[in-house]
Predict the structure.
Amino acid sequence: MRRVIQFSTASALLYLAGLSLAGPVPTDGKGEMIQPQQVEEQPRWYVSIGGGTDFTVGDQTLTKALRHDFTVIPIVPTAPIMGTVDLGRDTWDDVFDGRFARLRGEAGFVLTSHLEIFGRFEYEEASGDRTTHSRIIFTAGIPPLNGTAFDTIDRHWSDYTSYTGEVGLRYFIFGPEARIRPFVSLSGGAAWVAGLDNTSDIEFGAGFAFRVYNGPIFEDSTVGIGTGAVGVELNVAKWAAIGVEAAIRYQSDLSGDDSGFNRSQGGIAALIGFSNYSFLDPINDNTASRWSIPVTVYTKIRF
């Protein structure tokens, strides 16, 4: 019994010593112990969906200008036909006139209270237009046409379609407790761009025209993408925000497709004496890169 009493006394003394070492227990003045506040954990993952448009920066080349003097022998020989093909430069704005529309989906993870990492996918399209600043001039071989410049070579372009994937980092100036959160971001990746075709007709007036080309200018291309952006998000709830973003984006050159130029031509081209259009090969070489300003509005859901 004495040993039990000694053990109980020692245990009580150790307990009291532990309380004294731990310091006083915080109370609310009425003797009630104050419970420590729990820090509410912020959502770490998010998804967002949005859309917008983009604007081509400046006067950027899609296809190069070319001037070619030709001498050909027609199928029905009379005399060699001579002249000049004067092909004007087509720009991104000439062909697509700023009619780009985009859809964007994004998923990301919050690394810190100011930094998140993301991956995004975008679909973009634009309607191709008609350009008319090219011409052909006959100088000899067709007496009724000698010295005549046909100022209208109608070049009808196919539509633009691309699929883009990027990864990047976004830095917020203020933490998640702020209602309005400005940010900057950097991202990079690649895009698949569908090939661009062209159909060209020579207009002789009075509704009389000959088709002189119908084929590819650029093949399906995989291009590099780099984007820098600024924007702002508005927190509408702990789990939701809306945002707007403006960016500057660079897209590398498209891949030229000369197969249509180098094949045997038919129709009026063959009748006049053009076996192919290989002289056009340079117009799509090392060209069609693009700087643009994408503008996007989106909704973000956190979880």
About this structure: The chain is about 10% helix and 55% strand. Residues 2-22 form the longest helix (21 residues). The first strand starts at residue 45 and ends at 56.
